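Standup notes, protein team

Yesterday: finished cleaning the Corynebacterium humireducens NBRC 106098 = DSM 45392 set.
Today: VanZ-like domain-containing protein structure.
Blockers: none.

Input for VanZ-like domain-containing protein:
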Amino acid sequence: MRRLTWFALAVYAAVMVALTMLKAFYRIGYLWDPAIHRHRELRPVPLEDLLGATGWFLPAFGYLGNLAFFVPFGVLVYMLLIDARRPLLSTVLVGFAASLTIETAQYVFALGYSDIDDLLMNTLGAFLGAVVARLCGPRWHRVWIGLALALGVVFVVLAGLGERLGDPAKVAAGT
């Protein structure tokens, strides 16, 4: 089971890297424009997007999306660290380190926005994932592994379909 957990974590981590650092090189429908992800921007002010927002949807989507994005990661890491002295704290530290690595790499390689809010929400997501794994216990481990692997398959299918998933005319028209 441990090897399968490591495999599921590797699959999910690959999806995480693809969705955070490689969006400049592929499309899933017309969810984003790859060209806008080929730049370097540092956003060091916490909650800046929330405080400067003119609406609620984009900040909520950004914050909750980053939080949810790291929940499966936290679940899987907790499963691997369950026998550690302090598995919850260890999982949070691994989540923080993974997020910091992603944000730093985005900045260094000019692959998008490096945002302190992403670091905070991702770390919180890893924490929540660890809490879920802890509360549900080992009887759910196979479920979490299966879901992580399923997410990997769904991502590969969506990325493989690429631009065929959207109508560029409707996206350009705003409908």
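Follow-up from PR in the comments: Residues 2-23+40-163 form one domain.
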